[in-house]
Design a protein that fits this description.
The protein contains 3 helices and 6 strands. By secondary structure, the protein is an alpha+beta fold. The protein has a single domain (3-116), classed as Aldehyde Oxidoreductase, domain 3 (Alpha-Beta Complex), CATH 3.90.1170. The strands form 2 sheets. Strands 1-5-3 form a 3-stranded antiparallel sheet, sandwiched between helices. A 3-stranded antiparallel sheet has the order 4-2-6, with no helix packed on it. The relative contact order is 0.26. It comes from Candidatus Syntropharchaeum butanivorans.
């Protein structure tokens, strides 16, 4: 069983949960891009992700939000982030998932540097 399957399984056990949505972001192979690098410390990354998750968990109908984000240098095709949102209703879950992606782009990806072919 994968880590994602375990996370979803634990969320399904909560009787308030009516829907679970996931997002997996990967390094896209745009022309000339070899990799990306995130220049945040692990501590700063964890702090920002916790703030995002906690803010979303406070929303009506959201039961849990889990965010994993890799750091350092990531090659084309590597996983950047995985987000899992559980909540009472589809609309609430999908809205929180979309907002999580947008907040990560604002709060974490500002430190992202593209490594390009020279």
């Amino acid at each position: 069983m994968s880590e994602l399957e375990r996370l979803i399984g634990s969320m399904k056990g909560d009787r308030r949960v009516g829907g679970i949505a996931t997002f997996t972001g990967i390094v896209r192979g745009d022309p000339g891009v070899l990799a990306v690098e995130f220049e945040l410390s692990d501590e700063m990354l964890d702090e920002r992700l916790k703030k995002i998750a906690d803010g979303l968990k406070g929303r009506d109908g959201i039961v849990d939000v889990l965010i994993h984000h890799n750091a350092g240098r990531l090659e084309v095709g590597d996983e950047i982030t995985r987000i899992v949102v559980a909540g009472s209703h589809r609309e609430q879950v999908l809205s929180a998932l979309r907002d999580a992606v947008d907040l990560i782009k604002q709060e974490v990806h500002e430190s992202m540097k593209e490594i390009r072919v020279e």
